[in-house]
Amino acid sequence: MSTGFDTNEAGLWDRLSGTQPAPPSWLVIVVGLVALGAVLHGGTWRVLRNVVTIAHEGGHALVALVTGRKLDGIKLHSDTSGVTVSRGKPHGPGMVFTALAGYVTPPLLGLLFAALLAGGRITLMLWVSLALLAAMLVMIRNAYGVLSVVATGAVVFLVSWLTGPEVQAGFAYLAAWFLLLAGTRPVIELQRMRARRMAPSSDADQLAYLTHVPGLTWVALFFLVALGSLGLGALLLSPADLPFG
Predict the structure, then answer these.
(1) I want to staple 35 with a disulfide (CB 3.0 to 4.6 A). Which of 68, 106, 178, 237 is the partner?
(2) Alpha carbon 219 to chain centroid distance?
(3) Opening angle at CA 156, ends 150 and 153, nearest 5
(4) What does the alpha-carbon distance between residue 46 and residue 121 come to, in Å, rounded to a whole number?
(5) What is the pLDDT of residues 147-178, one digit of tens each?
(6) What are phi and psi of 82, to 5 degrees?
(7) How far apart (Å, rounded) are the C-alpha atoms in residues 93 and 96?
């Protein structure tokens, strides 16, 4: 016997597993330019950098769990900084990969989103975002962090549940472009702070301590991952029928 719940559940599964049509070329270009403006504009960047911090700390947390470390919690702060506390061996591969994950996660997440969008999985991409935010929320240990993650999740949920296909597509492409474009700016800011000796315990310096490889080498690696992800992501997101192409 079929029930309304079964029908709704099947409909949701069809939405998640199915594909959606690609948005118009002009929309992909416009949201890409909007994302670039958001990264370059100081005031907008200070607000949206919270999203990058969520991805950054989420990367630390995920890799800590994958490598067998015990995750104590995550804190996000209003100055867009964050900290992920895990327990385990103070040295070794697990600690190295956990420290490495932060700066490379936002651009790699953007690349994952770009791959999903290139395959027409717009709804799936939005709900993957929600699942990641929900998983992270469990480990948040301060009020601002809860507010930041809940607010981000609420925006994604409202767009995915209440808006039409074109708005969802525009928002999904905007999010992917933003993460791809935003990958380089924190790395540049990191090196500026390191040059002024204002970040003695940065991820790059922790990696230098753990591996005896200079911190600047790790900064360069962060930057190369961000640039590589941006290049591949741009190829995936770029319309095949550019009006001026």
Answers:
(1) 178
(2) 18
(3) 15
(4) 30
(5) 999 999 999 999 998 999 999 999 999 999 99
(6) -160, 165
(7) 5
Q: Which two tokens stand for residue 77?
A: 């702060």
What whole-number distance in Å separates Cα of residue 23 and Cα of residue 17?
Answer: 18
Gap between the Cα atoms of 39 and 107, Å rounded: 13
Give the 3-state secondary structure of residue 164.
coil
pLDDT over 50 at 92, yes or no: yes
Measured distance CA(187)–CA(204) in Å, rounded: 10
Using CA atoms, how far residue 76 sits from 31, 79, 149, 187, 228, in Å, is 27, 9, 9, 18, 27
DSSP label at 163? Answer: S
pTM of the model: 0.90
Pair 45, 185: CB distance under 8 Å: yes
> How many Cα atoms are found within 13 Å in the side-chain-facing hemisphere of 96?
11
For 179-195, give the DSSP string. HHHHTSHHHHHHHHHHH
Instruction: Give whole-number Cα distances, 69 to 61, 134, 214, in Å.
Output: 9, 20, 25
- Per the structure block, which two tokens stand in for 179? 């993460």
Tokens describing residue 55: 């991805």
Contact (Cβ atoms closer than 8 angstroms) between residue 205 and residue 199: yes
Tell how many helices (H) and how many strands (E) occur in the chain.
10, 2
Tokens of 243: 């009006």
The token pair that represents 106 in the structure block:
């936002």
Distance separating the N- and C-terminal Cα atoms of the chain: 54
